């Protein structure tokens, strides 16, 4: 049952992305083009999502625990550090240039559009490269700590 609900949630997300026009990178790029062909529809899609999500979270957290888990998995780290700022900036710049955010690119991959496939492949490669660099940095930090 849990897998079926995951599938239905993903399907609803994909349909919402498509219906909201977010499968079209030009929509996103035009939102950021405030001095050109500005398109405010992205803000409307995001605002509509917040109007549904905020009460949804309130109702879900009011239950005390999820249906298929012992508890909610909520981030507890509230630290704003260089890694968070750099990652957020990289995400925003990439989103503005490509017109896709990682979440929206996944359902659009089903179109087999070469641009989407290239973006998604580069995104996956970037994830692995970042994880590898973080692993190397942690190893160097551990070695420096041992040497001191």
UniProtKB/TrEMBL annotation:
<dbReference type="Pfam" id="PF20398">
    <property type="entry name" value="DUF6691"/>
</dbReference>
<dbReference type="InterPro" id="IPR046513">
    <property type="entry name" value="DUF6691"/>
</dbReference>
<protein>
    <submittedName>
        <fullName>YeeE/YedE family protein</fullName>
    </submittedName>
</protein>
<keyword id="KW-0812">Transmembrane</keyword>
<feature type="transmembrane region" description="Helical">
    <location>
        <begin position="82"/>
        <end position="105"/>
    </location>
</feature>
<feature type="transmembrane region" description="Helical">
    <location>
        <begin position="41"/>
        <end position="61"/>
    </location>
</feature>
<feature type="transmembrane region" description="Helical">
    <location>
        <begin position="117"/>
        <end position="138"/>
    </location>
</feature>
<keyword id="KW-1133">Transmembrane helix</keyword>
<keyword id="KW-0472">Membrane</keyword>
């Amino acid at each position: 049952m849990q897998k079926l609900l995951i599938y239905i949630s993903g399907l609803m997300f994909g349909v919402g992305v498509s219906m909201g026009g977010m499968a079209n990178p030009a929509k996103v790029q035009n939102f950021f083009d405030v001095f050109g062909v500005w398109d405010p529809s992205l803000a409307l899609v995001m605002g509509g999502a917040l109007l549904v999500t905020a009460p949804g979270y309130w109702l879900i957290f009011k239950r005390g625990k999820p249906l298929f888990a012992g508890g909610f998995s909520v981030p507890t780290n509230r630290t704003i550090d260089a890694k968070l700022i750099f990652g957020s900036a990289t995400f925003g710049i990439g989103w503005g240039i490509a017109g896709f955010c990682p979440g929206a690119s996944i359902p659009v991959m089903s179109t087999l559009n070469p641009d989407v496939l290239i973006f998604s492949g580069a995104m996956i490669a970037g994830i692995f490269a970042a994880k590898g660099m973080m692993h190397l940095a942690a190893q160097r930090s551990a070695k420096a700590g041992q040497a001191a």
